[in-house]
## 1
Amino acid sequence: MEKKTIEKGLLEAWSIKSSSKWTAENPARGQCGVTALVIHDHLGGEIAKTTIEGSWHFYNIIDGARQDFTVSQFGSLPDYEDRPSTRDEAIADTNEEQYKSLKEAFQRVFRT
């Protein structure tokens, strides 16, 4: 699955149910932890994190390449630290209901 296809699908899958910070103007806002988990479910790889304004930002490392599907929430590119993270840390950034919501929406969009 190509990155552009995933990005387009995530725009369809993200909602207020997957992040309380979601807005139509900035749909990626607050979606980093939950998105890193769902991408990890489907594409494997590693979950990584970087500090941004005192909070963790989560994303994926797939086949050695950084894949940050929620970077559009920021006005500029983060200064990536690529610190190793875990599913437990990413789920602490979200909750089970938001994770379930995005996972189901992602599966509907991609029919996986």
## 2
Amino acid sequence: MAHLQIIKGDITKIPADAIVNAANTELKGGGGVDGAIHQAAGITALNAACAKLHGCPTGQAKVTPAFQLAAKIIIHTPGPIWRGGDNQEAKLLAACYHNSLQKAQEYHCQTVLFPSISTGVYGYPLHLAAPIAIHAIRSFPTDLSVQMVCLDEATYQAYLIADAAK
């Protein structure tokens, strides 16, 4: 079972072996955490590395170097766009966390940072997304050290509540 810590902070400023990026399916820097990670890693280098991957389906994960970030790799995982909850959103969101942790293991990482996937511009309700993320991380069979990095107080509180309810 992964060791999980919920913290508040800027995911681009925290050292770790792997940083998970809430990417879009084209793997092109967008808004929110995706844009921040591209900016901090170095837009030109990261865009070039992402272009070689030819996109990534929702729920899957692909890896690039971390370039200027304090990490070895960036794990890119496109989360689901919220469409009311009847379009496999929960299954796809859980897959984002599971497949990202799988990539972290494949790349021999010890520490992994996650943002709150799909709860920004993709509109996934935070109170529904947080329990899915917590369960997916806590149930993954690994000794990885995982930090859920929450940018704001509302996100932080949602993850604390979800973790306490597990």
## 3
Amino acid sequence: MATHNITGKEGEAFARQYLEDKGYRILHCNWRYRHKELDIVASDGKELVVVEVKTRSDNYLVSPLESVDAAKIKCIVSAADVYARKFNVDLSIRFDIIAVVKYADGYRAEHIEDAFYAPLRK
């Protein structure tokens, strides 16, 4: 497996543990619908929380947050819509981003709650 893939998997595991330590209940990891994927689907007791995890090494050129563009948001929202229908979710949905950066001494996470909203349909 390529180094960036290993870093990504380790970053997702770090983000999962981070959320569990904050009291979130993890419902699914890497949930797929066709070619779309939700990295982490969790509940904080009040909302369904869809978390996009972006992991980078400390020498990254593009920040993890900048890599979540409009096209990526559209895919996440679309997959979350399918998820909510499939599992009969009766909670509001919040979209978070966890930016994980790998340093020589370990990982650090920045959790952005309500990082984006579902775009309005035209």
## 4
Amino acid sequence: MSEALASLAYGPDGWGDELLSGLWLTVRLALTALPFGLGIGLGVALLKDSRSWTGRLFGEAYTTVFRGLPELLTIFIVYFGAPRLLSASVAWTERLTGREPSGFAAAVDGFTAGVVALALVFGAFSSEVFLGAIRGVPGSQREAAESLGLSRFATFRLVILPQVWRLALPGLTNNWLVMLKDTSLVSVIALAELMRQSDVAARATHEPFLFYLVACLLYLGLSGLSTAGALWLERRAGRSFASAARQG
């Protein structure tokens, strides 16, 4: 038992540093994808709630595709397909402009591909959360803001968005926890995140239960911290509304 625990040591004689580096890469992947996914989700939700039928069609198509595809397949498409698409676009532009072919060959590193794939999937699921929150804000508040002379942008930024954020937080927290787990899938494109490092260590030491248990505890730790952070955000977002309710 002591030999097994010694394999978790930090340094050349153990796998502790590899596990921590994998944990850090997992956190960086999720945190980098988060703002892009939130932006995509909010943008798609606004399209689906717009008066333009083309906007609604694009929003529905986007969510249908990226909610329907397995996350693993999305990662493969981004990692292997995006470079080919970019290279073909450059070649097509060169032919169109009459320039000599440059032979440009695009490449996407594993981290970028993982971030893009995670953001696309997170955005698709979050768009439904944002859409429900947007439609949960009473229309009378928009009318009141317009009667005060606020522009549509000011109305959205000052009146609608704070309430949308409060209403969407529980659903977004759930999506964030799912994305944390989905980071394990990027190991298929040779990115040494937590799950891949745990698997390598388990195979090298022939102690699969120990290292998978450690990975389990680390993922649960991330989930616990995320849940605590989300509860703090929910209390902060609902503070002004609770104060207004007491005054009312």
